[in-house]
Amino acid sequence: MSIKIALAGNPNCGKTTLFNNLTGSNQYVGNWPGVTVEKKEGKLKGEKDVIIQDLPGIYSLSPYTLEEVVSRTYLVKEKPDAILNIIDGTNIERNLYLTTQLIELGIPVVMAVNMIDLVRKNGDKIDLKKLSAELGCQAVEISALKGEGTEAAAKAAMAAAKAGKGGELPHVFTGSVEHAIAHIEESIQGKVDDRFLRWYAVKLFERDDKVMDELKLSSDLIAHIDQHIKDCEAEMDDDAESIITNQRYAYINGVVDKAVKKKARVEHLTVSDKVDQIVTNRVLALPIFAVIMYLMYSLSMGTSIADGGWAIGTFATDWTNDVLFGEIVPDALGGFLESIGVAGWLYGLIMDGIVAGVGAVLGFVPQMLVLFFLLSILEDIGYMSRVAFIMDRIFRKFGLSGKSFIPVLVGTGCGVPGVMASRTIENERDRRMTIMTTCFIPCGAKMPIIGLIAGAMFGGSSLVAVSAYFIGMAAIICSGIILKKTKAFAGDPAPFVMELPAYHIPAWGNVFRATWERGWSFIKRAGSVILAATVVLWFLQGFGFENGAFGMVEDQDNSVLAAIATKVAWIFAPLGFGNWKATVASVSGLIAKENVVGTFGVLYHFGGEELSENGDEIWNLVAADYTALSAYAFMIFNLLCAPCFAAMGAIKREMNNGKWTAFAIGYMCALAYCSALVVYQLGGIITGELSFNFFTIVAAVILVAFIYLMVRPNKYVNDNEVKIDVSKIK
Hints:
The protein has a seven-stranded mixed sheet, with helices on both faces. Strands 7-9 form a two-stranded antiparallel sheet. The longest helix has 30 residues. The chain has about 725 residues and is an alpha/beta fold.
């Protein structure tokens, strides 16, 4: 029989670090059934029969967020053998609120007091024996970051699971509250698992809707229970939920007074506070953020070391493209295929289709890994939490909640979880608007497009990548301003509360694991979706009608693909890339954004052009078909238009409405087209690349209309204000 241990704790308490420490590489990642919250579980190192379930970070077991619902559903329905509750020892009062709720479940609980090294550094002392005695469950001290005490915590949880019995419930509530809860326990005796009797009674006292729906009590019993609650509310002169919250904190304060001795503090700022005075400063915050983004993209996507720069990612990518896919793979594989005498069409499929297409995408993997690595460091040290705080101030000015930035932040890795992260936004209008705008931010799959344009047209300048990031941010902010002035999205943004963890040295295990998971996801898509797409594209561009007969063609312009794409290429002509190859690349990007580069790899390698010495002929050929301005417009369109099919599916699931989904995708495409049109047409007039034409007028009208929509007064600004008739107030 396997033992199930659930890891539970507040966000930023070190739970993920402990989970990685206990399970190592024995992890399984998926989604909880029926929802989009990530599910992580793994086997305890050295114990193949012990399963560790990592629950989402939560502050309580109240049904306010999807994460809280998922966690409590697992605990109540799946009934793990033990709970390992991770507590931030530096903020023990707040963390114990969840602990008191977990203990009420009747499942054996072991408290792992984390960050004990910081507790000691602060001069504080936590008496584990007193803490255990007060709460009725074992307490152990750990430092997940340093690996101190983690094995002992796991063994304690295993022992508690084998014992199979929770400790004596602490006396959290007093007086009439305890009296009412006891009556509720009697009323539901036999209707719930005896272990959870206390927890259900407390939840019924709080009038928890989900518990009420689950138990399906008779109307007479509900009325009987409600009378006890009302009597208590009348005596305490407060609502039931507030009574429970206040008594929990009163009990916790008593426990902390007995078990925790804090060193007298001299009023001075901590290191984190001092850093935050600079990085979250109203004036300096944005410039610092811009500089950090520039440095990050410079390291991953700027001018390579080989060219006198210092971009690690580009240097590795140059080597990958020049050596691996420019010489080693084509030479070795091509030589092998020729030696065994494969048919000409099969040779073309493998070399000009698979190797050229997939290789063009995989060539960007080093850049992606460096970018993911740097992002993981920023997340782990706590800086990205500050970015959310900084952006909340900005977003709120434009009608968006700071909660909208969390999906955007997640979306820098992949748009699918970014869209899913919008579920944490309670306000329906804000949630829909966030879903519509999240995919504007460049995700990992769009990075090869940026790298292609930067390498082919701008000498590998990191400013291209930075500009792409801020174009995405501008699209989100401008969309917020415009949409908030419409009836469908009007109203004040939802409040945003977020904990800012103290800065700390990154846990390198977490950083490398997060980098690998993101990178491996990218590689898997290249090996599946992109492989299939490049094979189909190769056949379509390799066959057609030539000299009156259907078969393999020597000129791509006679292919089936060219014939189809040419019919619609005129749509993109005003944007500066009206050739059929760009059209195919843009459309194939709807399958997966990496396909844009994969498509170029197939189309520009067709016919077996001679490889140049450094293997960069694809970028030279791409550059021959574009100007810097048209290439930049191409990049803008593909960054802002509808995302890949997977992200569209996520939008459909989260919107749960076909019309809203169609509107969201249509809005993205319209904004992308208009943005690229304005950049190319008006930019062309300014640079002298274009002469005045009809589309110049169209672009100017669009720009004027866009500015008007941004600055026009919001007639719905007071729609959601509470109106009070002063004359009736006595």
